Amino acid sequence: MQLTEEQAVKLRRHLKSSRPCPTVSDQRESRRFEDETVSGDADARGYGSVVVYIQRGLGNANGIVSQVLRHVASVQNDNNLEYPVFLFSFGWDDGTLHHAVKCRNGGPGINSLGWAQALCDMATADSSPKPAVIPALFPPAKPISGKRKVGHDDLLVFFCRDRSVCLSEAARAQYSKHPAKQSVWIYCTDGNPDMSLGAREANMCDNQTLKETTMTVLPSKKLADPISRNLSKNDLARMKADFAFLLKIVSASKGELAIALRGKYFNIYYRGNSLAKVAFRADGSYLVELSDKFYCGSKAALDGRFTNMAKTKNGRVSIILQTGLLHPFFQKEHLLDFCQLIKKRNYCEETTFEQMFIADNACSDWFIIDRQVADAHFSGQMDLLGLRQLEPGCTLYGFEILEVKLGNNPELTGKVAQQLQSYVDHLTKQFDSYKACYEKVYLQLKALELLPTPAFDSIEITGQVKARIIVVGYSGIGASAIQELIKASPSILVHQLTLRLKTDI
Prior knowledge:
This protein is of the alpha/beta class and 505 residues long. The chain is 31% helix and 24% strand.
């Protein structure tokens, strides 16, 4: 029993797109932060630990267990990460998680087949007629290899016999605090496996389950808005006051540098590559995260004011800065140095063209409002999200999803058009949430003076969601692919930008 090819592709895409910082995520470490990875790019994102749970009685499910864990290891090994792997079994009569004394090691050169075999041996083929309950996400009694609880950057993988599995009240409390997208539920149902990627199973719990040994599904609660990129009123005021110097530098760069709002933090980009993530802390300070590839050896790292402040983990450097150290850290000399290191080590032709396209299309009638867009209700991610003016001179705009591809990109197939169509369908379904979010984002970008055009103080988003594919260069190679794209999804607009020289001018 194994996942179908379609399921396996969806699983791997979800694993890549959900990788947290430290760098990820869909599925360019200096390039992207959470939910911000483009297929084919290299980054340093990854999960801090892999925590796997298997239901009692699935000892013969080695095929699908090996397959899923192989994909997990492959995604982690993309960036040569070393990480611990914790294996648990649930559904036992004693109501506890069964596990080994120590964790296993994951990383380059380590075969995940050993994890799968250990899990299946732990689960045995002896099933129980009682409904299976996951009593906790981590044994409460004592630590395993120094770890006491599931971490915020951990990946959780659940192997269940069917959807009757539920979480105990304690497990659900732990699960609700964990990033929902960093979970994978695999159901080994009668040789016809299924899976759920993300948050849905968090609702499967009742505090009477352990006592009554029957599964109760809690009444579904109203889901939170799937997307929230705008800052709080307080954080917006802090950003305007504390980063006034940085906002001027970014505005003066004419598109080389950019800032994207991310709800509780913001990203600084250089030519489409994420230079730094800056998170707002409740005490008034800021948590700054960068790739160690672009920090170690930089002028900022050699500055005595920051030498003993940086902490490195899984390829990420984090520094907590008080307000008075923001300007010294992000001074022009340091920013230019970071940019040179990114340019030297992380150049990507497609990313560069993408940023050029954004910079050259900041107009009143059409502009990019956000990049690498993902939400809590969807495993995919949109490369670019634009807004098009519905009529000249009016404040009405419509969403437009874009992909920028080089003409020689092997991924330039009908699948790209189909993927874009799925994004259109999702955004249409969640239109009210996206509309509310990006109308606020527009207002805040205007307040921060990061969006010089359009000149309108506010806009209203309405109308039909559309999608475009921009094919750049290599016109001879891309011509046939463009025809395939048009054939696969006629509703997707395809534009080919060539670099052909016109000699008649």
